[in-house]
Design goal:
Distance between the termini: 41 Å
CATH topology: Rossmann fold
Number of helices: 10
Largest sheet: 7 strands, parallel
CATH architecture: 3-Layer(aba) Sandwich
Structural class: alpha/beta
Number of domains: 1
CATH superfamily: NAD(P)-binding Rossmann-like Domain
Order of helices and strands: EHEHEHEHEHHEHHHEH
Strand content: 5-15%
Length: about 270
């Protein structure tokens, strides 16, 4: 089990819905928000994985429940939001973390159905989720939505046409929602992580992890807990004047390039 440091109880009494919570960033975020006092509803397709995460939260003294859901289906998401309201009495925070894992390939080799699946999982899924979440938050007096994009949705990555387009769409959609509801008590923000050590990168092996680390100015990959703590901040009143923003969590990648040679020179100067 991943050890997670315990934050303060700044979310006490608030309800958080985590979509895509069965593993990785979603699962860790659910635990972090629960430790901060939130009542947490977890959603994904894998019931067994959701049950395991829920059990871990309860074992740590938190309150949580789960429900399987298809995040691209409006009726399924409507039932999920209704279950959240019924179980915990409201909806204050939503983290939309569901995505798809596209196999890298040049654009012309990509099948139309693969591209459509990426758009449906990212853009359509985020739209469907926000549509239902916003309605519930309006009835409850406001709330905070955090959507998961990627640094790839900001600056592009070769061979990932569907994924990049999908994440760019999440960013655009989130900005529109932020503007639509900025004066109605609902904030909408986006996370744009760089390389994070989740199960995908762990499965890729040590060489892939080292390559990803060298691509960041910090020369390391990020952790799921570092992303989760950004969700915690954006979901809390500490970020009450923040909406429509895209927050990179990327070890400095979005700032620009830091070649390996400069990194080594910096090490030598520090040693001297």
């Amino acid at each position: 089990m991943i050890e997670i440091s315990h934050p303060d109880r700044r979310l006490a009494g608030k309800t958080a819905l985590i979509v895509g919570a069965s593993r990785g960033i979603g699962a860790v975020t659910a635990r972090v928000l629960a430790q901060a006092g939130a009542l947490v509803m977890l959603a994904a397709r894998d019931a067994a994985a959701l049950a395991a995460v829920t059990d871990a939260i309860v074992a740590e003294g938190g309150q949580a429940d789960f429900m399987t859901a298809d995040t691209t289906d409006d009726a399924s998401v409507a039932a999920l939001v209704e279950q959240t309201l019924s179980r915990f009495g409201g909806l204050d925070i939503a983290f939309n973390n569901a995505t798809d894992a596209s196999r890298p390939m040049p654009l012309a080799q990509m099948e139309p159905e693969d591209f459509e699946r990426a758009i449906r999982a990212n853009v359509h899924g985020t739209f469907v989720a926000m549509r239902r979440q916003i309605r519930a938050m309006l009835d409850g007096g406001g709330g905070s939505i955090v959507n998961m994009a990627s640094l790839a949705g900001v600056q592009g990555v070769a061979n990932l046409a569907g994924y990049v387009t999908g994440k760019a769409g999440v960013i655009a959609l989130s900005k529109v929602a932020a503007l639509d509801y900025a004066d109605q008590g609902i904030r909408v923000n986006v996370l744009a992580p760089g390389p994070i050590l989740t199960h995908h990168l762990e499965a890729a092996g040590e060489a892939a992890q080292q390559q990803a680390a060298r691509a960041t100015p910090m020369r390391r990959v990020g952790t799921a807990e570092e992303v989760a703590k950004a969700v915690l901040w954006l979901g809390s009143d500490d970020s009450s004047y923040v909406t429509g923003t895209v927050l990179p969590i990327d070890g400095g990648q979005s700032a620009g390039a830091k070649p390996e040679r400069m990194y080594r020179q910096g090490e030598a100067m520090t040693a001297a």
